[in-house]
Amino acid sequence: ALYDTIYLEFSRRALIQFRRDTFLALCAPGLPLAGYHTGRRDTFGDPLSPAVQGHFYGQSSTLRAGAGALAWELGEVSPGESRDFTLYLAAASSEAAVLKLLAEAGRRSGPKWLEATAARWKAWLGSAPGEPAVRRSLVVLKLLTNRDTGASIAAPEFDPFYLQCGGYGYCWPRDGTYAALAFDQCGYHEEARAFYLFAVRVQNKDGSWQQRYFTSGSWAPTWGQQIDQVGTVLWGYYNHYRLTGDRGFLAQVWPSVLAGAAYLLGNLSPENGLPGASLDLWEDNFVQSTYAAAATCGGLTGAAKLAREMGETARSEAWEQAAQKIKSAIPAYLWDPRRQCFLRGINRQVGHHDYQRAKEEGVHAWTDRDPLGIYTTYWVARDPRLDAAALGLVFPFGVLDPFDPLVENTLKRLEEALTSPAVGGLYRYEGDGYAGGNPWVVTTLWLGIVRALRGEREAAAALYRWALHNASPTGLLPEQVHRERGGPAWVLPLGWSHAMLVLLDLALKGKLVL
């Protein structure tokens, strides 16, 4: 941590690190402590390098960028002999609470805890699909979920400077919906329901959602809202209700549906009927994106069906009509007849350099003013780059049938343009340079789902195997696969990757309910 304190609690022989109301404690009950050392990282007093050499200097407390090392006396270990012992790590909101947890944990041996933990997970998995990869993915999604609030983080991270990660330890409504979809499709309706009720609690008064949240529900750092997340959550509400028939759930989410649908209707462009420009799925483009159009169409369609269940016929018809207008506008404005594929988006905000280049190339471009009239903003008419997010038109939102000729052509173009020639897998979009530019597990499995829905089982199964081949040694799925050597790149595990693996497995078995 950056602004922490780390110290040795002598009476329990426990190393404790805390910041504000977060306390972590480490000990090995029953073993005599042979040495300790605390110090600041990357300074002369850093304890980690000396500890590797077996040196512990006895400093018992340090603040700011603290680290600590402990040594225990195991007795003489003969050549070829092994000695097992158990380390206990506890987390709580105060010193008293964390020491109490350590004391309680120490009353049971490590093997007994392992046995109890395994039994608990086996009971929870129950009749889940039998493939180890699917069962592991469900466990990952469960572990990424706050059991008190229902919110799930995108991925676990432990790098406060974000040098080897992208800031994923938050709950995105979109990612959470895909996790909830995987839970729902496997019969874990309580986990899905908990997420959706979290979404109800944190929704903005205008019907939108923030880009991301802490799992407590407070806002996380943000760089802009995304209209596709509103459509995604509304579609998720409908999907959960369709699978469960839970009238109590419908009553709980109905006010959120009203607010969310009103937000979507209020943010449709009068010029083309598509959702207004916002950050796109990948959060690096301010544009009227194809994916946002698919999500908004799906969200309004789902809301219309929920409205019918509520006896709100007028609202149902109005929302369904709006969804149909978007569905008609998508091929009219977002289809590229030259490349025979859907555009990434239209009416894209760009920087001055891209604006000038567009003008030089004869591409339609224009300027506008920011909402306060202070600064000039620059726009181009189209973003022609091929983007795997166009798959959202088929799954999960069902705007287009998997066998639609537009879908067939798009799949061909996406595979031709975005498949990595070195390691396989699908890049997100043409020219993607994030984290060095790698194929993504999410996009590859997404393509597999659409292929499976088209009955192209072997092509879909090959993409499924690719994901497993590039997992970590423990079977965890990363966000990306290294573009040169294969294997995990960037964050690990990514919840969205594991959700897509579960969904592709179901699609391959013909059990994905849409």
Structure description:
The chain is built from 15 helices and 16 strands. The protein has 514 residues and is an alpha+beta fold. Strands 5-1-2-3-7 form a five-stranded antiparallel beta sheet, covered by helices on one side. The protein has a five-stranded antiparallel beta sheet with strand order 8-9-12-14-13. The model has no long low-confidence stretch (mean pLDDT 95).
> How large a portion of the residues is in β-strands, by DSSP E?
5-15%
Structural class: alpha+beta
> N- to C-terminal separation?
44 Å
Largest sheet: 5 strands, antiparallel
Rounded mean pLDDT score: 95
| Strand segment tally | 16
Q: In angstroms, what is the radius of gyration? A: 26 Å
Fraction of residues in H or I helices: 40-55%
Strand order of the largest sheet: 5-1-2-3-7
User: Helix tally?
Assistant: 15
- Described by the principal axes of the CA atoms, the overall outline is globular
Low-confidence stretches: none
Give the helix/strand layout.
Elements: E1 5-9, E2 14-19, E3 22-27, E4 33-40, H1 48-52, E5 61-63, E6 66-72, E7 88-92, H2 95-105, H3 110-125, H4 132-143, H5 173-185, H6 189-202, H7 227-244, H8 247-266, E8 278-279, E9 286-289, H9 290-309, H10 313-334, E10 335-336, E11 341-342, E12 345-350, H11 352-360, E13 365-369, E14 376-383, H12 405-418, H13 441-453, H14 457-469, E15 480-481, E16 488-489, H15 495-508
Antiparallel strand pairs: 1-2, 1-5, 2-3, 3-7, 4-6, 8-9, 9-12, 10-11, 12-14, 13-14, 15-16
Helix pairs in contact: 4-15, 5-6, 5-7, 5-15, 6-7, 6-8, 7-8, 7-9, 8-9, 9-10, 13-14, 13-15, 14-15
